[in-house]
Amino acid sequence: MKTKARPSIRQAHKDLTRARIAEAARQCFYEKGVSETSFEDIATAAGVRRATVYLHYANKSAILTELLSRNLEEVRLIYERLCGLGAYDIASVRKWLESYVRALVRHRQAMRLFQIAMATDDTVRVMIEDYRESVVRSLGQHFAAFAPGAGRAHAAAVLMVVKIDFVADAVAQPAPRLAATAALDLVAEELSAMLAEPVTAS
């Protein structure tokens, strides 16, 4: 049986440098915004030369995409927990929504980065659309309302994911404008109804 080769010291150093650059960029984006952040700013914050930043990333969009991909993967895992609830009554779905909101509160800065990116980067907008489609496909393996298809049914499934994300993000804000209890109740009722019909084995 072959053993997996260990990464070289050189590769490990490159990975650490890349991670340091990405985190430095994240902080710069938070503080200045994406458009106002330069590669020089990122290099200074990371403690590397500007040329080193270019060795790892072609442009700011590449850094932004990598950062947001990590966050989207965490959100996908939250939706996976929805698939494993076992009970899909309104109260159970409401508790899942509350857990989603708590996760967003813990990662509030990351959510800010999403909002900044959505307003400035077409690549990120496409990435988020792809993420929502992947969530629908994942839910479609378990629930008939999200099963693969087209037309109104598919549009309703995607819009449900958009609504969940929007309400959870709005409620997670320090001073939410939405009436949190009412908003979560409404989404829980609608989502519970959509999850009521599981996919039947053929």
Automatic annotation (TrEMBL):
It comes from Sphingomonas turrisvirgatae. Residues 15-75 form the HTH tetR-type domain. This is HTH tetR-type domain-containing protein. The lineage of its organism: Bacteria, Pseudomonadati, Pseudomonadota, Alphaproteobacteria, Sphingomonadales. GO terms for molecular function: DNA-binding transcription factor activity; transcription cis-regulatory region binding. InterPro entries: Homeodomain-like_sf (IPR009057), HTH-type_TetR-like_transc_reg (IPR050109), HTH_TetR (IPR001647). Residues 38-57 bind DNA. The keyword Cell inner membrane does not apply. Keywords: DNA-binding.
